[in-house]
Amino acid sequence: MKLCKHCGCSIPFHRRFFVNPDSAVFLPCKNCGEELIEKEKMLVHLIITGVILLVVLVFDDRIPFHEIGVFFIDVFVPLVYFYFFIPFLSD
Predict the structure, then answer these.
(1) Is there a contact between 16 and 27 (Cβ–Cβ < 8 Å)?
(2) Residues with Cβ within 8 Å of residue 16, at least 6 apart in sequence
(3) Does an H or E element contain 48, and which?
């Protein structure tokens, strides 16, 4: 679990799936409403996710699975990276 840098409230793991990059605050704290994501690193994070997606799409013909397995790898590898390594503000 992560902690909010401002109020010390614990942030459960499932909260990272509620990122909204269209709003002013990408991921607000439930308690105080402050930003939980480091916006400066978010652009780099999105670029790396895009590169991972491109690499997976380029090399997916070499994966020895059926088409549905390749589809799941193409979709879930970038999503897993995006959500599991999202740049939270440091404690």
Answers:
(1) yes
(2) 27, 83, 84, 86, 88
(3) helix 39-58
- pLDDT score for 11: 86
What one-letter code names the amino acid at 39?
K
Q: What is the pTM of this model?
A: 0.74
Distance CA 78, CA 50 (A): 8
Q: How far apart (Å, rounded) are the C-alpha atoms in residues 67 and 63? A: 10
The separation between CA 80 and the C-alpha centre of its own chain, rounded to angstroms, equals 7
Q: Which residues of 64-81 are buried (b: 16+ CB within 10 A; e: fewer)?
A: eeeeeebeeeeeebbeeb
DSSP characters for 66-84? -HHHHHHHHHHHHHHHHHH
Give the tens place of pLDDT for each residue, 24-69. 888 888 888 888 888 888 889 989 999 998 988 888 777 777 777 7
d(CA 15, CA 28): 9
